[in-house]
Amino acid sequence: MRTTALSELHADEPMLCAGHAACPGCIDALSVRHVLAGIGPDAVAVIPPSCMAIIAGPQPYSSLKIPVYQPTLESSAAAASGLRRALDAQGKRDTLVVVFAGDGGTYDIGFQCLSSAAERNEDFLYVCLDNEGYMNTGAQKSSSTPHYAKTGSTPAGKLTRKKNLTEIMAAHGVPYVATASAGHLADLTRKVAKAKAMRGTRLLTLLIPCLDGWGVDDDKGLLAARLAVETGAFPLLEVEDGERYTVNAAKTRPIGEYLAVQRRYRHLGSDQVAALQAEIDEGWARLQQRAAATTPP
User: Fold this and answer.
1) Considering the chain, what is the average pLDDT of its residues?
2) Domains and CATH numbers, the chain
3) How confident is residue 295, by pLDDT bands cut at 50, 70 and 90?
4) Does residue 162 have a pLDDT over 50?
5) Signed CA dihedral, 218, 178, 249, 284: sign only
6) Nearest of 109, 172, 100, 157 to residue 130 by alpha carbon
7) What is the 3-state secondary structure (H, E, C) of the chain?
8) CB-CB contact of 8 with 65 (8 Å)
9) Beta bridge partners of 247
10) Region 125-145: what's the mean pLDDT?
11) What is the pLDDT of residue 2?
12) Do the Cβ atoms of 106 and 117 come closer than 8 Å?
């Protein structure tokens, strides 16, 4: 594929080329395709080592039709901050800087850099493609891996809970923090448009069921994404200015339905399933309380 000048692009053209290196049925590629469609061509992407870096491919033969800068794993937010300043110096204040990073480069290795950028309220959109592990290096656990999930480095199941990145980032008081999923596409596209229209640090965390790492059938990725939301394992929410919480979807199903479509939970007994259900119910109740407390009368 050839590289494309920004001036050649039109807003209605696909921004992610065919022929990329994603696995069949990959929700990572599907999610990024819709995010890019909402962003449009006037943007620059920062993509650290991750599944998305493999999908995007090497420069200048990237599968994205916007410029891509590939930094080190820990420095995405710093790279985005520098690109923002360079574009501003050139008078290109409307060109969006967007980061596409995995959970390893966000929750873990890149968190210090991201937290520092949020403290400064740097002007970029950070999209965390959260597949809940280090998937392209053998499916090892990250701090985003959920409780009891089996990974390459937790063969008997992870013994600790998933880090609550959304509320940690919301505590920085940045303009916008939200979760989204390709399984709820209208909600995802609305949040991309909302984040694009803002200034300052914005974080979107997208749940990305990893077919191989989670043990999901090739045609069941979107089903897993929908069940994650409907069981409350991955609540859809927005937090504006660190204060106003909005929950965007209801919890309507038991967690067992979500666990059943993934091989990474097949080792669980009924007691562990019940413990997970109690953990999710507790988190859901706390989230509802926060949303109720910050909703205008």
Assistant:
1) 94
2) 6-294 (3.40.50.970)
3) confident
4) yes
5) positive
6) 100
7) CCCCCHHHCCCCCCCECCCCCCCCCCHHHHHHHHHHHHHCCCEEEECCCCHHHHHHCCCCCCCECCCEECCCCCCHHHHHHHHHHHHHHCCCCCCEEEEEEECHHHHHCCHHHHHHHHHHCCCEEEEEEECCCEHHHCCECCCCCCCCCCCCCCCCCCCCCCCCHHHHHHCCCCCEEEEEECCCHHHHHHHHHHHHCCCCEEEEEEECCCHHHHCCCCCCHHHHHHHHHHCCCCCCEEEECCCEEEECCCCCCCHHHHHCCCHHHCCCCHHHHHHHHHHHHHHHHHHHHHHHHHCCC
8) no
9) 237
10) 96
11) 39
12) no
State yes or no: pLDDT of 12 exceeds 70: no
pLDDT tens for each residue of 32-83: 999 999 999 999 999 999 999 999 988 778 899 999 999 999 999 999 999 9
